[in-house]
């Protein structure tokens, strides 16, 4: 049975509506609109592991844009490794969740994140996925010192995630994010 990505997003939107948070509702609707039926059709034509990984990427976008750290961390492994754009490294689900709770309450509160998959390799029970992320609508102040923000105010990153199949689900075992510096061509 093919799971509809739009149905998953709309369930999430409904949950946010119940919580009466209009901003999150509007942001999630924006993501649904961005996920046109053609992209859903493309995903439905792909093999199951590819669909599963792309679904995780889409869920990350929705969770980020709605500021939901728990949902953003849902696929992170209990012992996963995490390196952020500042080069700080953390280990484990709890650290990953805590950092994103801080980000979504602080500098990235109200921001919108889009991801474009540039590379997706699947090897039996391991997947490597690289995305270009584009974050907008954040507070560009001293907290981002040393991080390149482009002339349009976007933070662009290269996010490399390594996932391992555990039972029926994929878990992120490594998450490495780096900002794309001025002069580097974004694919």
From TrEMBL:
Residues 54-172 form the DUF4440 domain. Pfam families: DUF4440. NCBIfam families: SgcJ/EcaC family oxidoreductase (TIGR02246). This is SgcJ/EcaC family oxidoreductase. It comes from Chryseobacterium nematophagum.
